[in-house]
Design a protein that fits this description.
The chain has 470 residues and is mainly α. The chain folds into 2 domains: 181 residues, Growth Hormone, Chain: A; 186 residues, Up-down Bundle (Growth Hormone, Chain: A), CATH 1.20.1250. The protein has 15 helices and no strands. Helix 1 runs antiparallel to helix 5, helix 1 runs parallel beside helix 6 and helix 3 packs antiparallel against helix 14. The longest helix is centred in the N-terminal third of the chain and has 114 residues. It is found in: Membrane. Keywords: Membrane, Transmembrane, Transmembrane helix.
Length: 470
């Protein structure tokens, strides 16, 4: 059997093919390795990039959470501060409102004391006349001492209130009143009676003027219309004082013990009011007293006329009913009673009326109502018309003076510490001068003419109300 020996050329070709195959496999292996390395490097870089992005996201999330937390804390702190501030503001406002309310209540009590104490003296006048054996002329001169004391003390009251405060002056004046009332019920010496009446009048002037100073300050601080209500308490105190003492005397209680009851009640009211009375008065940037000028003089003349009408009702309404309308003397007091009741009611509701219709219209309508009422009482010859007329006079006059005091508190012509005593003095001069002037006119002509002159003066008040800037 013969063997076939490959040729050399074939071996060379096979070796070349094998070498090429090996080279191709090696190149593929290298390419694969390179691709794997590249992919691994790309994967590593991708993984590193993702880790960096993940860390960045985590950092951003942490910052966001931290910012949110800080914002919540800041918002919580702000809300706490705001709530604390709101609480402090509410507490402060509540405290201020409570203080203002206490001052207003004390002012009302001061006006009630003024009306209560002066009216408590009125029922004692017949007892003083009988005890001292005085005639009408001498009694009139004695009562003039009371008015002179009031007129002289009023200009000083404003300056004293500015220096020592409303509280001290009101307390001292009220204590002097409490000292004088029992003395007036027991004194039998004429010189001592004159001195006591003078001190009593001066104390009354001090209480009246200082109460009005406090009322102007309290009303201005509140920003509300309150003066009519304050003066309404004066009128209410007058009714309670006169009726209460008359009732005690009618029960057989002696004048001295009746005055002791008045003193005790007055001291109780003073103890209630004193802690919240103003420890200061109006700023004192002027003289102790000055002649009123400008708008203050104009307001003073309005008050003078209204007070003159009040004096006419007080002293002459009963005489008019008995002498000209045939009313029995036991019922003659109904005239002033009707006047006082309508005046008191008008003042108690006066603040709401002033807020609704305005200060100027209150003066205008009040003057017209009072003038018309006095004309009705004078011109219609029946006693029922007289009582209706007196009621209209009381309603018309009720809020004119309080509005005038409020206007004085807003004017800039004169300091309040001077202006308030000035118009109070001028106004109360109407109570002193008016009844005497009416008596003189009635003596020369007739009481009807005197009343009609007062009615014309009240028409002048209505005209003046349209010119007054309140």
């Amino acid at each position: 059997m013969s063997m076939r020996v490959p040729s050399r050329s074939n071996n060379s070709a096979e070796r070349a093919i094998d070498a090429y195959s090996l080279l191709l496999c090696f190149s593929q292996l290298v390419i694969f390795k390179l691709s794997v390395a590249v992919n691994l490097d790309h994967a590593r870089r991708l993984r590193q990039s993702m880790c960096r992005e993940r860390r960045s996201v985590a950092r951003v999330r942490h910052l966001v959470n931290r910012s949110a937390l800080l914002g919540c804390r800041a918002g919580w702190r702000d809300s706490v501060r705001q709530s604390q501030g709101a609480c402090m503001t509410s507490f402060s406002t509540a405290a201020q409102d409570a203080k203002a309310g206490a001052e207003q209540s004390s002012t009302r009590i001061a006006f009630f004391i003024a009306g209560f104490s002066v009216a408590s003296w009125a029922p004692l006048v017949p007892y003083v006349k009988q005890r001292m054996g005085l005639d009408e002329g001498t009694l009139g001169l004695l009562l003039l001492c009371l008015g002179v004391g009031s007129i002289l003390s009023m200009p000083l009251a404003g300056a004293l209130a500015a220096r020592f405060g409303c509280r001290r002056l009101l307390v001292c004046s009220t204590l002097l009143i409490c000292l004088c009332l029992p003395l007036l019920a027991t004194i039998s010496s004429l010189p001592l009676l004159i001195a006591t009446l003078f001190v009593f009048g001066a104390s009354m002037g001090g209480v009246d003027c200082t109460a009005n100073v406090q009322a102007v300050i309290v009303e201005r601080n509140s920003g509300k219309t309150m003066m009519s209500g304050f003066h309404g308490l004066f009128s209410l105190g007058g009714i309670v004082g006169a009726a209460g003492v008359a009732g005690l005397l009618s029960l057989g209680i002696s004048p001295f013990y009746s005055m002791l009851v008045v003193v005790v009640l007055t001291l109780v009211a003073l103890a209630k009011a004193a802690p919240n009375l103003l420890p200061y008065g109006s700023p004192s940037d002027g003289p102790a007293f000055a002649v009123p000028r400008g708008v203050v003089l104009f307001i003073g003349l309005l008050c003078f006329t209204v007070f003159l009408a009040e004096g006419a009702m007080l002293d002459w309404s009963a005489v008019f009913l008995t002498s000209l309308r045939g009313v029995e003397a036991s019922y003659a007091g109904l005239g002033y009673a009707v006047f006082a009741v309508t005046m008191t009611l008008g003042r108690l509701f006066g603040d709401a009326i002033v807020r609704r219709v305005g200060s100027n219209r209150v003066i205008i309508l009040g003057g017209l109502c009072a003038a018309g009422g006095l004309a009705v009482a004078t011109l219609i010859p029946v006693w029922q018309a007289a009582l209706l007329g007196y009621a209209l006079v009381g309603a018309g006059c009720s809020n004119i003076v309080p509005v005038c005091y409020s206007a004085v508190g807003r004017q800039k012509t004169m300091p309040q510490s001077v202006a308030i005593p000035a118009i109070t003095t001028v106004g109360y001069a109407g109570i002193l001068i008016g009844p005497a002037a009416i008596g003189f006119i009635a003596h020369v002509s007739s009481l009807e003419l005197a009343f009609m002159i007062v009615a014309v003066m009240l028409l002048g008040v209505a005209i003046g109300g349209s010119k007054l800037r309140t």
